[in-house]
Amino acid sequence: MNKNNYVEKRTLLYVVMLMLTLSFIVVPVVVHADHHTVNLGTASTFGVLAGSTITNTGPTTINGTAGGDIGLHPGDDPSILTFPGQEQVSLTGTIHLFDAVAQQAKADLLIAYNDAAGRTSDETISADLGGRTLTAGVYTSASSLGLTGTLTLDGENNPSAVFIFQAGSTLTTASNSEVILINNAQACNVFWQVGSSATLGTGTNFVGQIFASASITATTGVEVDGQLLALNGAVTMDTNVITNDACQSAGSLRVTKVVEGDTGSMILPNFEITVTGPNNYSDTQTIESGGSYTWPNLISGTYTVVESGLGEGWSTNGTGEYKVQIGQRTDVTITNTYSPDDVMDHGSLTVVNVVTGDVGGMTLPNFSITISGPEGYTSTRLFAEGESFTWDHLETGTYTITESRVGLSGEWTVSGEGSVIVVADQTVSRTITNTYGVIPLPNTGVSSSWMSYVALILLGLGSFILRKWK
What is the 8-class DSSP label of residue 219? Predict the structure, then answer.
């Protein structure tokens, strides 16, 4: 064998073996653990809790269903009776300056801080979180964390989804940045453990409990769904709204589909139901006639139930807004009624598929037939041999029937394609014939003996080439 040919063949063999080996390499998939929430103990009722000082400028509101308390301990000057700007703070809780309640809350905060800091990381994240969408898990930066723009936290329809962010040093947000919750994520389950200080830029809409080892600054116009909790340093506020809401347990919403009216033998459409609600929740499901679907793990609030348009002749009742409550199921019935009297100028089109030719015992393919018509209408269906199908309730007009050649070998020919006119209250029929047959060689006028000589010459030439190659 020629040495060059041997090298080429051996190289090709190695390449094939390498490709086979690579095909069995398993790429690891990151799966986040199912994390439990961080227990704040008595600190859970505080919208603001500081270690050295508290300062406020402008009208600030602190409230929430978990509590709207303000606390300071141990403080730089325990002799003071109020903190600067206290008179402009509106709160639903109690102010605790240097008392035993604030002291216990600080002790519980330290436990919560260490808990959050000690969680095993699921993912190391970059310095800036802007533009990202994250699911539940523990996210870690060895240094600082920043947010410029929007961070989206996706609860994946689990109200118990927990998000923990670990920052080695600072947490800083740019002006007008925001954290958005979707799909039942809750602010009460978002925690930011900060190794030094946190600064929220003007106009930031922030979500979660900030545990800062040092200080926290909420600049002008910042709104926080959560808590500002500083272990050792100050909390500085400026015209802020801090809402410390408790977690909500789950409820559910069930939609049952009822179809009424003169549907006859018509093929019913898919009934697509969309439910939207708090925290940008949105989910769409398809429900069959007489069937139902239950949306589980919904936090309490108002949900909107809508159905996609069904076209002429259909009316819908039962969509609208519904309340979901903790631990309860809200039942909704959506009724679709079909009335042929409301449908004008519609007809039907029947297509029959016929197979002819020498198919013998071969396995026949499925034949893909498409009709297209007025207003951009198009519909495709797979036909077996001898099968027919009727498209009902078609708008009147001209329709084009075509069959795809994908999957059909060159031995197949198709006839019957073309245009048909659908008229009101009538059924138009069209037959598509698929014929199978071996395509004959063209008659070139060359004698068979001459063809035999040519074949022998080609055979000899091939043998010569093979001997040389070896």
Answer: -
**pLDDT in the model for residue 20:** 38
Whole-number Cα distances in Å, 320 to 215, 274, 303, 326, 431? 46, 11, 8, 20, 46
| CA gap 183, 155 in Å, rounded | 5
Length of the chain: 470
> What is d(CA 339, CA 111) in angstroms, rounded to the nearest whole number?
66
If we measure between CA atoms, which residue out of 205, 154, 210, 158 comes closest to residue 177?
205
CA dist., res. 360 & res. 138, Å (int)? 64
The alpha carbon of residue 452 and the mean position of all alpha carbons in its chain are separated, in whole angstroms, by 67
CA–CA separation, 221 and 242 (whole Å) = 11
What predicted TM-score, i.e. pTM, was given to this entire model?
A: 0.58
C-beta of residue 275 within 8 angstroms of C-beta of residue 299: no
DSSP codes joined into one string, 190-202: EEEEESS-EEEPT
Give yes or no for a contact between 306 and 319, defined as CB atoms under 8 angstroms apart: yes
15 φ, ψ to 5°? Answer: -60, -45
- pLDDT of 74 reads 96
**Is 7 a residue whose pLDDT tops 80?**
no
- Nearest Cα neighbor of 212 from 61, 50, 38 is 50
Could you report how far apart the first and last alpha carbons of the chain are, in Å? 5
What are the E-state strand segments in 196-263?
Answer: 198-200, 205-212, 216-218, 223-230, 235-238, 241-243, 251-261
C-beta of residue 129 within 8 angstroms of C-beta of residue 103: no
Nearest to 394 by CA among 335, 341, 343, 336: 343
CA distance 446 to 461: 21
> What count of other Cβ atoms lies within 10 Å of the Cβ of residue 250?
18
